[in-house]
Amino acid sequence: MAKKKLSNKEIIKRLRNDDDYYGEFGRQWLSNSNIKDLQPKTFKQFGQVMEDNENFIKGRYFHQLILEPEKAKNFPIFTETKTRGVKYEDYLKANNISSAILEHEAILMEELRDELLNVKGYGGAKQQIADLILDKDAEYEVPVVGEIFGHPFKAKADIISKGVVIDLKTTTAKHDEEFRWLGKNKYYYDTQAYIYQTLFDKPMTFIAIDKNKKVYGDTGETYHEIYVCPVSEDSALEGKKKVESAIQLYEYYHGKNKKEDIRNVIYNLKF
């Protein structure tokens, strides 16, 4: 018996669940993470499931603190050591879990959450960020599916507030220019912006906070740099071109009518 075709509403309901979004069900659709894997130096690895790492763990906890605080209360926090060694592995086995955040990492993520949401009450621009994120009509963890260049794509918005798609980031960039360069050349924020703006049909803004602590002058008061980055038309266009190139690699080496077996690909280099 043929499987019943799910309605768009049923698909979206399933994709709200992280296990479905990132698991086998969600792999029916391409996403921005696939675009990173469909580059001239990485296309052979397309389709590999990414292993969890400490940056993913910290990012997941940070997002839950803001978007799903009830879920964050149950996030496993390892307190015995400051490294992921033997005791950490024993803790995972004893609790039958695959990962946990270290206590000092959790404290930093909570500090970033507090500063981003303006709990200290500074007002001004920081208050505007908090108001945008915490707006009573804001939606969190919103999935969407659609078609881009003839292929099925998915995305999940951290926040949709006041008609804008918002994606939260943490960074270690030393200044704004480095953040912009990393976003376009290493982390593919421009392709993410194009995909999200296309699927949601809404403008997009990145809000990032630096994990490195800085000091205001000689006051001793510390802070974390915050970047608010509305996506420009130029950046979205750059992202579109990258997505199109990635799709061409996908069709050539991985699509249903692929023209070349990746096992035949070698690199001829001149020294």
Number of helices, counting only DSSP H or I runs of 4 residues or more = 11
Instruction: Give the second-level CATH assignment, the architecture.
Output: Alpha-Beta Complex
Shape: globular
Structural class: alpha/beta
Sequence of strands across the biggest β-sheet: 3-4-5-6-9
The helix content, as a percent range, equals: 40-55%
> What's the N-to-C terminus distance?
58 Å
Domain module tally: 1
Output the CATH class name.
Alpha Beta
DSSP strand (E) fraction? Answer: 15-25%
The main pleated sheet reads as: 5 strands, mixed
Instruction: Give me the strand/helix succession.
Output: HHHHHEHEHHEEEHHEEEEH
How does this model look, in words?
The protein contains 11 helices and 9 strands. With 271 residues, the protein is an alpha/beta fold. The chain has a single domain (8-34, 43-264), classed as Lambda Exonuclease, Chain A (Alpha-Beta Complex), CATH 3.90.320. The strands form 3 sheets. Strands 3-4-5-6-9 form a 5-stranded mixed β-sheet, with helices on both faces. Strands 1-2 form a two-stranded parallel ribbon. Strands 7-8 form a two-stranded antiparallel ribbon. The longest helix has 21 residues, at 233-253. The protein is globular and about 60 Å long. The N and C termini lie far apart (58 Å). The mean pLDDT is 94.
